[in-house]
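Limitations
The C-alpha cells in this dataset are predictions for the assembled complex, not deposited experimental models. Users should treat interface geometry with appropriate caution, especially where small molecules or nucleic acid strands are included. An illustrative entry is reproduced here so readers can see what is and is not provided.
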Amino acid sequence: MPLAEQLLDASLWASVTRALIPVLLAAIGGMICERAGVFQISLEGMMLVGAFGAVAMAHVSGSATIGSAAAVMAAVLLSLILAFGAVSRDGNPIVLGIAINILALGITSFLLPQLFGVRGTFQPEGGVRIPRLLLPGLSELPFLGPVLFSLSFLGYVALVLVPLTWFVLFRTPVGLRLRGVGERPMAAETLGVSTNTYKYLAVIASGALTGLAGAQLALGNVGVFAENMSSGRGWIAVVAVLLGRAHPVGVLGACLLFGFAEAFGFRLQGQGLAVQITDAVPFVVTLIALVLARKRFTRLLDLSETKI
Amino acid sequence: MLKAAQRGVTTAITHPVTLALVASFGLGGVIIAATGGAPLAAFSEMLAGGFTGRGLHNTLGRSIPIIGMALAVSLAFRAGFLNLGGEGQLLMGALAGTMVAITVPGPGVVVVPVALAAGAAVGAGWALLAALGQTHLQVPLLITSLLLNYVGRSITSYLVRFPFGAPGEPFATTVPVPEAGRIPRVTLIPGGRVSISLVFVLALAAVLAVLYRRSVGGYETEMVGLSGPFARYGGVNVRRHTLLVMAGAGAIGGMVGTHLVIGETFRYIDADMSAQSGIAWTGLMVSLLALNRPMLIIAAGLLFAGLQIGGFAMERATGVSWQLAQVIQALVIVALVSRFAVTWKRRRAEAQATAPDAPEGEDAHVGKV
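Predicted assembly:
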C-alpha cells in the first residue's frame, strides 16, 4: 500500500485508539495532579498494579466489571502512599514516585507466583475480557465506526473525560479551587480552601483513573497479566502531561501522538521490521517531541529548585 | 561512659533508617502472612541465606554491581540530577564491553581493561545524550534519561539477536567471552572466590569519597546540586559540570554492565541482561538510603545485595517468592522519604515532654535525601 493510503486506513486508526486509551486514562489522572501541584510520576506503577488487580479479581469473580473495580481499588491504595508521603509528610514526590514504581513491580511480581503459582504471564479463568460496546448505528459508519464507536466501556470513559475534565477544571468552582491550590497555594489557603484535601483528592483521582488504565490494558487490550506489562506507558503518560501543558486538549493531542507511534510501529512490524526496533518507536517519538516542544519544562531542569 | 554508650545505642535504635528497616520488614511480614506463608521462618531463611556461609560470597558478588550503580547515581545526585537512565547506560556499555572482550586478541591484562574502557565509553556516551539534552536543548534530564532506557534496551536486544548474535542458539546471545577476556576471581575471604571487581568497586567508592569531600571539583559539584543559580553566580560552569558528572555516571554504569558479562555470565544473554538491569534501580535505592555518601553506600549495598541473595534462599526453603526482597527495599525508601519515623519519634518526645533536647536535627538529615 502506498503511504497516503495507509495513513487513511481505518484498521490503523482503530489500533491507534486501542493504544491510546490506557495512556490517555493515566495521563488525565496525571494532569489532575499536575493542576493541583502534585508532581505525579508513579503512573507507571499504578497502571501495573491496576492491571494485576483487574486480572486477579476477574479470575476470582469471572467478571470484568469486578476486575476493573479491583483495579481502581488497588491503584488508589498505592496512590495513597504518594498522597501521604508527598502531601502530608512533605517528602520528595520524585523519589517517592520512583520508589512506588519499584514497589509496584516488586509486589506484582511477588504476588503472581504467590497467589497463582505462575511466573511471567497469567490469564484469568475463562479468558475474561472487557467487551467492546458497538454503539448502535454509529459503529456502522465508515472509518469513524471502527475507530471511535466500537471501543470498550472504558474507552468511551477516557474520551468523554477529555471535555469533562476541561469543563470541571475551567468552568466550575471545584476546578478553580483545584487550580488555585496548584498555582497559588497560599492564596487558596487564605481563601479557606484546604490545599491538602484538594491534593489528596487529585492524587486519589489519578489512582482511580490509572487503575482503569491498567484494567483496560490487561483485560481490554491484551487479555492477560504479564510481569511489568505497563512497560513504559505510565512514563509516556507523564510526558504527555508535560507536553500537553496539563490541558485536556493538549494531553489528548500528545497521547494521540504516542498512540499513533505505537500503532505505526506495530504495523511496521507486520512489514518485517524487527520487533526490537519497533518497540522503541513510541519512545523515540516521545524524545523527539520533547526536543521539539522544549522550553516548556524549565521547572524540571533544575532539580535543586525542587527540594530533594 | 556507660551513659554515652547507652545514648549511642538509643540513637542507633531510633535512627530513621533503623526504624524504616524495621517497619518495612514488619510490613513484609504482614504480606507474607496474608499470602499464606510463615514470616519468621521466611525472614530467618532470608537473613541466613544472605549473610552466612556460601550465601555471603554470593552477596559479595551481587554487591559489586549494586554498589557500582549506587555510586553512579550518587555522582549525579550530588550535582542535583536524578539520573534514571542507569539501566540503559548499563546495557549499552555491557554490550560494547562484551563485544570488545570477544573480538580483541591479546592477554587478559590488556583485553579486560580495554573492554571495561569500551563499556565505560559507550555508557558515558549514552548518558551524555540525556545530559546534552538538558544543557543544550532544555529538555529535562530526569525524563530523557529514563526514556532512553527503553531505547537502549531495544537497541541492545536487536544487536544481540541479529548482528552480534551467536548463530544456531535458540535464544539471543553472543558467543562466550574467551578465557583471556574474563575478569578473574580471587579468594578474598576463605571458603569461596569472588570477582576481583569487588576490589575495584570498593576503591572507586574510596576515590569518590575523597573527591566529594576534598577536591575543588567535588565542592563545585555539590554547589551545583544545592543551587544551580548560586553556583553559576560563583563562577562555576554548570553546563560543563552537568556533562562531566553525567559522563562519569554513565561510565560507571557501562563498566558495571561489562562486569556483569565478562566477570559473571561470560556471554551477553539478552533475556538475562534485561532481567539484571533492575540492578540500576536497586542502586538508586541504595544511594538514597546512604544519603549519597560512598562509604555508607558500601554498607547499604551489602545490605540490599544480601536481601536479594537471601530472597533466593528464602524461596528455595519456604516457597515465599524472592521478589519480597524488592518489596521490602522499596518500602524502606518509601518509609524514609515519608519520614513517618520522624513523626513517631516526635510523638514519643511529645508524650515524654521531659526531654528538653528533642532531636530536631534528624528531620533535616532525612530531608536532604
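Some entries come with short summary sentences. For this one: Chain A touches chain B through 53 residues (CB under 8 Å).
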